[in-house]
Amino acid sequence: MSRPDKTNIDRQRRKRAKLRARGFEQCSIWVPRAAHADIHMMAETLQQHPHLLLGSLRDPASGQFVGLRPDRDYHDANAP
Questions:
Q1: From start to end of the chain, where are the E strands?
Q2: Residues 4-31: b if buried by 16+ CB within 10 A, e if exposed
Q3: What local confidence, expressed as pLDDT, does residue 33 receive?
Q4: DSSP element (H, E) containing 50
Q5: What is the model's pTM?
Q6: Handedness of CA 25, 27, 31, 35 (dihedral sign)
Q7: Which tens digits make up the pLDDT trace of 19-58?
Q8: Above 60 in pLDDT, residue 7?
Q9: How many Cα atoms occupy the beta-carbon half-sphere of 59 within 13 Å?
Q10: Start-to-end CA span in the chain (Å)
Q11: Long-range CB contact pairs, 22-27, < 8 A, 24+
Q12: Please, what is the Cα angle at 8 between 4 and 14, to 5 degrees?
């Protein structure tokens, strides 16, 4: 007798294989509760549009923008 969740396991395995084939990696990170929605939205947007670059962060205390690793070129890391 097959397990009832086998279909879901297989579906998840196929989805992960497709994403890996497209050059994506799965990661788990801990983020502040207030930033969770923004981080999730950014990750989904990057998955749909991998050519986009991450922007800067804003410090709510000072109102200043903080760059994200300006020394790294994301396009070079993703070049074929």
A1: 57-58, 65-66
A2: eeeeeeeeeeeeeeeeeeeeeeeeeeee
A3: 92
A4: none
A5: 0.59
A6: positive
A7: 999 988 988 889 999 889 989 998 999 889 988 887 778 8
A8: yes
A9: 8
A10: 45
A11: 22/50, 23/50, 23/78, 24/50
A12: 140
Helix, strand, coil share (%) of the chain residues, nearest 5:
45, 5, 50
Find tokens 């962060």 and name the residue: 57
Write the DSSP symbol of residue 27.
-
Q: 66 φ, ψ to 5°?
A: -120, 125
Name the residue with tokens 């981080």: 39
Rg (CA), the chain: 17
- Assigned token pair, 39: 């981080």
Q: In the block, which residue shows the tokens 């800067």?
A: 56
Degrees to nearest 5, angle at CA 21 with 51 and 29: 70
